[in-house]
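debug: dumping io for the single-chain case to check the tokenizer round-trip. Nothing else runs in this session.
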Amino acid sequence: MPSEPNRQLETFENPALGRNYTIRIRIPEFTCVCPKTGQPDFATIHIEYVPERECVELKALKNYMWSFRDVGAFHEAITNSMLADLVAAVTPRFMRITAEFNVRGGIYTTVVAEHRAAGWQPDQPVQLP
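debug: decoded output
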């Protein structure tokens, strides 16, 4: 059965529960519609997160992103909606969504939205010689 766009995000159990590690996902073919003109908007979506108990399943994420194709919404609304939906699905320790929209009328727009679980602190980076 072929895939279809939908907003249902599936998850799977984090295989390394006790470790802080980062999952980075890049989606270079995101499309939605400008709510003012009805013209398509194109973006690269970057998702970075530190999972807690669940990780997002990638095929479901692909179908979720596809569900925005005919949605007319401002870039800020789209980005914050994605963050809310993904945080609800996986309840991460940390998540950042960066939406880099292509040029429109000579203007590039990048929207960054973040979530941090209460009390969570990132590990300190290791400085190697």
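debug: round-trip ok. The beta strands are 11-13, 23-33, 40-50, 54-56, 94-104, 107-116.
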